[in-house]
Design brief:
Blueprint (H helix, E strand, L loop, with lengths): L3 H14 L4 H12 L14 H10 L8 H17 L11 H11 L9
Helix pairs in contact: 1-4, 2-3, 3-4
Length: 113
């Protein structure tokens, strides 16, 4: 696993880019997966990464596993690639809305201050 300084920096970066609370993310994952024909069990709503982010949000730093660290790096990198924090526009098109929804499945709402 990462050394303690690396882990501390990653923990801070992760919680900076994941700006949704665990309750907000859980609710979003349930809404995102709701469908007229099929709806997963509420505790399994959302994709694997979204569920893993939710689990990480409910942990203490000392309880992280190597898988958690890997997902945290992935989320920080992915959100960093998709978001220009200083120039984040409000969604104006379906493409922008789709991008926002993809980010929200990782716990980042670009419209949240």
């Amino acid at each position: 696993m990462a050394d303690s300084l690396e882990l501390e920096a990653l923990w801070g970066d992760f919680h900076r880019v994941v700006n949704m609370s665990s309750a907000e993310l859980a609710a979003w994952l349930k809404v995102r997966d709701a469908d007229e024909e099929t709806e997963p069990l509420p505790e399994r709503a959302g994709g694997e990464t979204g569920q893993h982010v939710l689990a990480i949000l409910q942990k203490r730093r000392t309880d992280l596993t190597e898988d958690d660290v890997q997902v945290m790096r992935q989320v920080v990198d992915t959100v960093g690639e998709l978001v220009d924090a200083e120039n984040e526009p409000e969604p104006e098109s379906a493409r922008d809305t789709g991008r926002r929804h993809r980010l929200m499945t990782l716990g980042h709402d670009p419209l949240k201050p």
